[in-house]
């Protein structure tokens, strides 16, 4: 407890106690605080600039990733590019045949497509035939209500399963591709179609025969069925007359076998005389230089049966 002297009043003591926690700042102290605040502001600005640079770098990295993905996805890239080209008066047929997976096909003449004789029987294989034909020929679809006159009356039962098969998001585009493929299989049997396919064949786009005895003979596309969505194309060797599956990574697997049909490969080989007249050569198995008889199994089987028959007769 403090005692108040005569020289000091109680009010002075209270004023001194209230000012004990306060610090008196000089001009030098104010200058130091100003410098510190300026440094803090500079650091904040530098941090903001670094964050902006990082954001730009991340955007560049993302753009590079998209570019890499676009390069890996060539088919999607081509589709986007060709969509832009199509806006510049590129026909549907030209656009379709320039897609990466459709480089195995040739461009069908529009005159061939417009000839109704060449399209006989196709009305029952794809739904909405008239609408798809207009898509292929780049014609305006003015009569939407009358497009399906040939489809929904007499052929309704025949095509009901076919219509179910083609229901998806890109129904019209996929159906148009299927119809074009069916027309393509007929066009390549004509003189002009054979000439165009011959150029494809000479380029070796369909690959070569895997058999060593065929000496890298070029292959031809073929199919085992004319039915859409049945099986992808097979490859036919005119030298050994054998058929092979395309490699797993081949874009040919993305096509339908009906785009080439069952008759093209043999007809092409006969038309250009590329069918081999040589006798087929097969691998001959040997053991220590001795040829193994191809009928050895049948011979052994007959000998065993003969021994069993003789033993059964002796027992009787």
Verbal overview:
This protein is mainly α and 316 residues long. Among the domains are: 87-187, protein kinase ck2 holoenzyme, chain C, domain 1 (Orthogonal Bundle); 204-271, N-terminal domain of TfIIb, CATH 2.20.25.20. The chain is built from eleven helices and five strands, in the order H-H-H-H-H-H-H-H-H-E-E-E-H-E-E-H. It has helices at residues 10-18, 27-72, 74-87, 92-97, 110-114, 129-136, 156-165, 171-187, 191-203, 264-271, 296-315, and strands at 220-222, 234-236, 243-244, 286-287, 290-291. The strands form two sheets. A three-stranded antiparallel beta sheet has the order 1-2-3, with no helix packed on it. Strands 4-5 form a two-stranded antiparallel sheet. The radius of gyration is 41 Å and the shape is extended. The N and C termini lie far apart (141 Å). 20% of the residues are buried. Mean pLDDT is 74; it is low at 1-8, 17-23, 59-73, 77-84 and 144-149.
Summarize the structure.
The protein is mostly helical and 316 residues long. It has helices at 10-18, 27-72, 74-87, 92-97, 110-114, 129-136, 156-165, 171-187, 191-203, 264-271, 296-315, and strands at 220-222, 234-236, 243-244, 286-287, 290-291.
């Amino acid at each position: 407890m403090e005692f108040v002297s005569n020289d000091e009043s109680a009010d002075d003591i209270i004023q001194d106690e209230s000012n004990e926690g306060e610090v008196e700042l000089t001009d030098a102290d104010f200058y130091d605080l100003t410098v510190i605040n300026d440094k803090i502001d500079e650091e904040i600005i530098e941090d903001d600039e670094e964050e902006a640079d990082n954001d730009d770098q991340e955007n560049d990295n993302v753009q590079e990733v998209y570019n890499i993905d676009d390069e890996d996805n060539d088919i999607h890239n081509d589709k986007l590019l060709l969509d832009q080209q199509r806006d510049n008066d590129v026909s549907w047929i030209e656009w379709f045949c320039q897609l990466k997976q459709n480089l195995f096909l040739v461009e069908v003449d529009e005159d061939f497509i417009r000839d109704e004789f060449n399209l006989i029987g196709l009305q029952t294989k794809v739904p909405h035939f008239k609408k798809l034909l207009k898509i292929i020929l780049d014609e305006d679809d003015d009569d939407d209500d009358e497009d399906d006159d040939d489809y929904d009356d007499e052929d309704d039962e025949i095509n009901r399963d076919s219509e179910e098969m083609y229901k998806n998001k890109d129904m019209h585009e996929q159906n148009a591709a299927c119809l074009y493929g069916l027309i393509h299989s007929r066009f390549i049997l004509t003189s002009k179609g054979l000439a165009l396919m011959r150029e494809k064949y000479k380029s070796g786009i369909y690959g070569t025969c895997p058999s060593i005895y065929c000496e890298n003979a070029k292959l031809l596309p073929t199919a085992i069925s004319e039915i859409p969505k049945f099986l992808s194309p097979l490859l036919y060797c005119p030298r050994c007359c054998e058929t092979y599956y395309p490699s797993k990574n081949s874009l040919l697997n993305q096509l339908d076998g009906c785009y080439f049909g069952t008759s093209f490969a043999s007809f092409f080989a006969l038309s250009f005389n590329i069918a081999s007249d040589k006798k087929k050569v097969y691998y001959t198995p040997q053991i220590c230089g001795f040829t193994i008889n191809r009928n050895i199994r049948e011979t052994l089987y007959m000998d065993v049966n003969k021994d069993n028959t003789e033993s059964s007769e002796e027992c009787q």
